[in-house]
Write a structure and sequence with these properties.
single chain, 217 residues, alpha/beta, 10 strands, binds adenosine-5'-triphosphate
């Protein structure tokens, strides 16, 4: 279970999140919608341990974020969380395969047989087998985004966090990526929290959350 209790966050005098509480079970897909500036990305960053709330508690699978030291937070992020952003942040000088395996290299140990097995399963599911040796600049935007999703999944994250993952894709690629998320949820029981502007991409969500004026509507 992911549990947020009374999360609040201000920037200066501007209250961005006002006592937000939320529970997300395993295999649930949650969409976060809301007007620009309503705090969607801020909430996602707090859940992703990239920003601290001013108050409130978060637990993921029994681990309290408050109890983690800075070093533990980095390890927790790398092992438990997967991130996909609108601008996928792929490393331009590395091939797609190297980009996908990057989180495994960070761990420092050699890739195990089960890492390789998962890698194969991921690239097959995402349909990106044929582009593995290419550089990110040599593939399309939709393909780049699928590589970013593969990289986010390679550590088997407890929670996949996606911030406007379809934001720079055309409609067709956006729908393909969303269909992939739906498949990851159905087949892999992947828990996903996605910020989106596109309310067409929420039909399979277990929870749709509208943020407005710092609160869930
Ligand atoms: N580092 C910061 N310092 C000060 N204010 C910030 C900072 N980051 C965000 N804000 C402000 O906090 C508010 C919420 O920002 P956030 O990016 O979470 O909104 P959002 O709902 O994701 O917006 P969008 O849909 O436009 O991406 C905005 O008014 C923004 O200007």
């Amino acid at each position: 279970m992911l549990e947020l209790k009374n999360i609040s966050k201000s920037y200066g005098t501007q209250l961005i999140l006002d006592n937000i509480s939320l529970q997300v079970k395993e295999a649930e897909m949650v969409s976060i919608l809301g007007p620009s500036g309503s705090g969607k990305s801020t909430l996602l960053q707090i859940i992703g341990l990239l920003m601290k709330p001013d108050s409130g508690q978060i637990h993921l699978e029994g681990v309290s974020y408050q109890d983690l030291t800075e070093k533990d937070q980095a390890t927790f992020r790398n092992q438990q969380l997967g991130f996909v952003f609108q601008f996928h942040n792929l490393l331009g000088e590395f091939t797609c395969e190297e980009n996908i395996k990057f989180p495994l290299f960070i761990k420092g140990s050699a890739l195990s047989a089960s890492d390789e097995e998962l890698f194969t399963k991921i690239i097959e599911t995402l349909g990106i087998k044929d582009i593995l040796k290419k550089l990110p600049s040599q593939i399309s935007g939709g393909e780049q985004q699928r590589v970013a999703v593969a990289r986010a999944l390679i550590n088997r994250p407890t929670l996949l966090l996606a911030d406007e993952p379809t934001g720079n894709l055309d409609n067709k690629n956006a729908e393909t990526l969303y269909a992939l998320f739906v498949e990851l949820k159905a087949v892999w029981q992947q828990r996903i929290i996605m910020v989106t502007h596109n309310d067409k991409l929420t039909s399979h969500s277990d929870q749709v959350i509208y943020l407005n004026s710092g609160r869930i509507e």
